[in-house]
Amino acid sequence: MWRKIKKLRFWWKTLVIFDTSNIYTTYAKHKKIFKFKDYFNFVKNLIERLLTEYSKRIKKENIYIFVWIDENLKKSKWFYQEVVKLLGETNIILKKVKYFNVKWQLKRKADLDADIWFYLGKFKDRFTSFLIFSSDGDFAWIYKELLSEWKQVVVLHWYISEKEYIKVKWKKKKKKLKSIWREVLQLQNEFKTALLVKPIDEVLDL
After folding, report:
1. Does an H or E element contain 106, and which?
2. CB atoms within 10 A of CB 168
3. pLDDT (tens digit per residue) in 119-156
4. Can you tell me the distance from the alpha carbon of 184 to that of 197, in angstroms, rounded to the nearest whole number?
5. What strands, in cross-sheet order, belong to the sheet with 195-199?
6. Is 33 helix (H, G, I), strand (E, B) or coil?
7. CATH number 3.40.50 is the correct assignment for the domain at 14-203
8. CA 167, CA 163: separation in Å to the nearest integer?
9. Which of 43, 64, 106, 195 sits most deeply, having the most CB atoms within 10 A of its CB?
10. Domains of the chain, residue spans
11. Using one digit for the tens of pLDDT, what is the confidence trace for 15-38?
12. pTM, whole model, 2 decimals?
């Protein structure tokens, strides 16, 4: 049963953007959600929660999930198929993973950021409020554009703290990290209540 948490207040018609790749690598792993099945249940519960508690502002057809798929990973295909069943194919933005060699290591990259930028710009005149699930500070510029046009922006995120990040990535090495949230948090001083930036745990009990 959900805990009673202070509800979000959306101004009016709301567009929901879910950056699955970003949230998976931050919030889901923090919660020790590693299996695709468990992560899908997490996404499903989140969507059901939004549609139940914010039905006056959030409609199913206005929720867009950005998903990566790896042709070499069957579980990623399964995840995509399940979210299609949940929301419909038109609401799922799919990007195939590309592989790159970085310092003799093979790394994969989906790069969903450009697609998210496009959809936020595409729908900016159709919605009053924008709910974005992402810990990516690179969206600060599009947030500023929306806010400058008298829109409400709500960012629900999860990020590893600087101390934890250094411990995980560099072990005992001490290295000061530049906060990716600096640009986003600076916008709060300028736009006040029009921009809300909160960790997911503070507003949704999932």
Report:
1. strand 105-109
2. 9
3. 999 999 999 999 999 888 888 889 999 999 999 999 99
4. 8
5. 92-96, 63-69, 14-19, 129-133, 152-157, 195-199
6. coil
7. yes
8. 6
9. 43
10. 14-203
11. 999 998 888 877 777 778 888 888
12. 0.84
